[in-house]
Amino acid sequence: MCGIVGIVGVANEQELTWLRTACGRMRHRGPDASGVWIAPDGGAAFGHRRLSIIDTSSDSHQPFVSEDGLLILVFNGEIYNYLELRAELEALGERFRTEGDTEVLLAAYRHWGTACLGRLNGMWAFSIWDRRRGPGQERLFVARDRAGEKPFYYRHRRGRLEFASELKGLRVEGGIDLQALNHYLALGYVPGDLCIAAGVRKLPPGHAGLFDRAHGGFKVWRYWQLPERLTGAADATDGEMLAEQAWSLLVDSTRLRLRSDVPTGVFLSGGLDSSLVTAAAAHVSGQPIQTFTIGNPGSALDETAHAQLVADAFGTKHQVLPIEQPSLGLLDEFAPFVDEPIADSSILPMFLISRLTRRHVTVALGGDGGDELYGGYSYYQAALRDRARLGWLPKPALGIAARLAVRLPAGVRGRNRLASLRASLEQASIWGTPYFDIELRCRILTPDVLAALGPDLDAPERRSLALFGKPQDPVDGLTRLDFQQVLADDFLVKVDRASMANSLEVRTPFLDYRLVEHAFREIPPHWKCTPDERRRVQNLMAKKYLPKGFVLNRKQGFSVPMDQWMKAANAEEQLETLPRDLINLAEVMRLHRGQLKNRTNGARLFALFMLEKALKNCGDNFTRRMDSA
């Protein structure tokens, strides 16, 4: 796990100084080593911060240069199947001078070109400078992993390309991208290739890019996508068989993700996903694994007893890490690591959990992805139940109720629920955002911003609808939407930011592409979620491989009392620093006053807090002018 930064295009001394500074700003991503490589003609420069995981010797330091000097790699992530790839490449005549996955990745590109991506099992964001075609004809190949576990920001303009693992690694010179701001207020995160900084883009998950120095062009393409679901006979597939297939894949995925030359453990919350990962780790490990649970004594959210049941069953070296209920003051401590804004308040306890875990291990396995693959969210059930109970209601009647609801003040109980029915029962999660729906964005954004957005104000909702598609079953549509959007752009960003702030690598067995493809291709929606049961395939796995007494269909996370926090006396002062040319502060104050009257605006106010922190971190360029680019 590392931090990368690079400039392609003639770099002067000032820009090289910036590159070195950018590396320093990302020291938390790689405290073990740093390096810079500059092309002999000054046409490219790359920087790297290293968190040593596999082959911790200096032989695998980066930027990594091939023996002939023609290929230069900077790489953030892990290639878990590097041993298998190494053996295959050795059979093809390749010889290796290191024991790590970095050299294997470079050799894979040398032999298979951009098609090497189809052979990789891991998480990554990397760039390879290819000098084999000669001076002036070099190319830069970049790629991001299938699920989007590792970030890649870039700026391409006037025949130059700059990239970094974090936005703070790039020079921000263009103000705010208003469409990114619009999406953030709607969703609580900035999705896809959008970036809050105008002129900067993110390489989307499952995408690659090729920069050609000869003409300065940058081509981006999708190299992987979710498979189409098998229909017909697959709908009658036996659940026990599906569960065995999924378990076998999970065990092998976990086996690969336990490869490490540094201490490794498992986040064990006591929930279904982390418990299955623990069971799989115990199955393949030749020695007791370390498990970590966060203790929250006296809280209804405390899961130590559930985690202890699993730890005892598998004989893990179990530790309960005591954690205090986080306060809003923690936001100031986390603020330096806020890059793009993210409104998911669970990023704060994740920050604390990562800090405590890092005292014991360098790598931790987590359970992210299980909900999206196997139908774990309660609103999947709600969509099915609503269709059964309310499907008889005419759509015009639902639309009228929704239009009346959106006129209510933000935070009034029941407003979001009614407003979410504006299109269809199955799409309620798209329209029932806990943040700012279209009508609330009309209130919170200034007239100038609304005028600049024009008819694209509903772009966030249209994006979600496109990802939802027109499925025959709402569960299939919702899980696909969530995998491609909220998982990639919220949950995985949260884990990356919070863990890397503490120099902790988090690996996610459920995001092995083989598991992902099996879940979306082979498992029919009714084996994921029905009106009566969520996670049906996972539950079958649990009944066979988890200890007796394990409680199924128990969904809770370590949440924060955001509504109470936002009643704090200094909340109003911090909100007043939001840029007045973008945000209607009068509406912000109405939200805060509504919170004091026990309305539920905590999530909205926290979203604005995080926006303020992100803009402050990125400097004064953001507030100098608006930019709708």
Structural class: alpha/beta
- Whole-angstrom Rg: 24 Å
Biggest beta sheet attributes: 6 strands, antiparallel
How far the N terminus sits from the C terminus, by CA atoms, comes to 32 Å
Give the DSSP E fraction (strand runs of 2 or more residues): 15-25%
CATH superfamily of one domain: Aminohydrolase, N-terminal nucleophile (Ntn) domain
CATH class of one domain: Alpha Beta
Strand count: 19
Question: What's the architecture of one domain, going by CATH?
Answer: 4-Layer Sandwich
Helix content: 40-55%
Task: Enumerate the strands of the largest sheet in spatial order, edge to edge or round the barrel.
Answer: 2-3-1-9-8-11
Can you tell me the residue ranges where pLDDT is under 50 for at least 5 consecutive residues? 623-629
Kindly identify the CATH topology of one domain.
Glutamine Phosphoribosylpyrophosphate, subunit 1, domain 1
Q: Please, what is the average pLDDT?
A: 90
Cα shape: globular
